[in-house]
Write a structure and sequence with these properties.
This protein is mostly helical. Helices cover about 80% and strands about 0% of the residues. The protein has one domain: Serine Threonine Protein Phosphatase 5, Tetratricopeptide repeat, CATH 1.25.40.10. The longest helix is centred in the last third of the chain and has 44 residues.
């Protein structure tokens, strides 16, 4: 990829088509109430890849259920939970899961790359927040100065 990140970035940035997600949803619903773990995982993965925050939240919820109930799938779940939280803008939660994964697999290039993506986003959002805060403070200073000038005349 030209942005310097490994191919995992497609997981964080690309969504499935509506038709692809519908296939996963139908499979999941056909198997209910006892859907196979892989079917549930696939549907959760598809929801997390969605552009809809509501669908992303549903995907994260399903992925958490797998994470809690199936120890053998925790590693995969950590990665996709980190992506889900990243996509929803919940960077502290995303960081928790990617750091758990890195604690288990320090050499995991996908997780390291995702960690960098999260850090970059937090830094960018932090700078934007500082700029907005600075602008608000500057406006407040101008307003206070105008009030004092008006009172002194």
């Amino acid at each position: 990829m030209s942005d310097g990140y490994l191919p995992y970035a497609a997981d964080a940035e690309q969504s499935l088509t509506g038709e692809e997600l519908l296939v996963l949803q139908r499979q999941y619903e056909r198997e209910m109430p006892q859907a196979r773990v892989q079917t549930k995982f696939n549907y959760a993965w598809g929801l997390i890849k969605s552009t809809s925050k509501r669908e992303q939240r549903s995907g994260v919820k399903l992925m958490h259920e797998i994470y809690d109930e199936h120890n053998e799938r925790r590693r995969e779940c950590m990665y996709y939970l980190a992506i889900g939280y990243y996509k929803m803008g919940e960077y502290s939660n995303a960081r928790v899961f990617v750091e758990q994964l890195l604690a288990l697999e320090p050499g995991n290039a996908q997780a390291r790359s995702l960690h960098g993506l999260i850090d970059d986003k937090v830094a960018r959002d932090g700078l934007i927040g500082l700029a907005v805060s600075g602008g608000v403070l500057a406006l407040a200073g101008v307003a206070i100065a105008a009030l004092f000038k008006k009172r002194s005349t």
